[in-house]
Structure formats: structure tokens, C-alpha cells
Specification:
The chain is mainly β and 69 residues long. Helix content is 0%, strand content 46%. The protein has one domain. It has a 3-stranded antiparallel β-sheet, with no helix packed on it. A two-stranded antiparallel sheet has the order 1-2.
Length: 69
């Protein structure tokens, strides 16, 4: 999927509270990933739920690296 076609979501860093936009690739299905905050560089845990029927993003949960989400 081209980067221009990926849906963007605005999230808040669980460490510093910075708001930033991230691209989410629903073609990967439901998955978890870790990315660094662009402001404070702390590792953020992302959990993406994608509908198996529609391929749409159902939810995006954001947590600290050691949070159980």
C-alpha cells in the first residue's frame, strides 16, 4: 500500500503527552508495534485491531512500553 493511501491517526505520547500523527497500515491485519515518540524518543507500544471482514481499522491502543494493552 502506498504511503499516501495509509490512514493517519493522531495519538498522544503516554510519556510526555505530545500529540503526533502516525500512519497505520491496515493491510498488515491486527498487530502490535513499537515506535519512538518524535518528541521525547520514549518507546510507545501500539496495538492495532483490524476487521477481518472489512479490512478497516477498528481500534488503535497506545501505551507505555511496559504497559499491558
Amino acid at each position: 500500500m502506498n504511503e499516501e493511501q495509509l490512514p493517519a491517526r493522531v495519538v498522544n505520547c503516554p510519556y510526555c503527552g505530545a500529540r503526533f500523527s502516525m500512519l497505520v497500515d491496515p493491510s498488515q491485519g491486527s498487530h502490535e508495534s513499537w515506535e519512538d515518540c518524535p518528541q521525547c524518543c520514549a518507546p510507545i507500544h501500539f496495538k492495532v485491531a483490524v476487521s477481518a471482514l472489512t479490512g478497516e481499522i477498528e481500534s488503535l491502543v497506545v501505551g507505555a512500553d511496559d504497559d499491558v494493552i
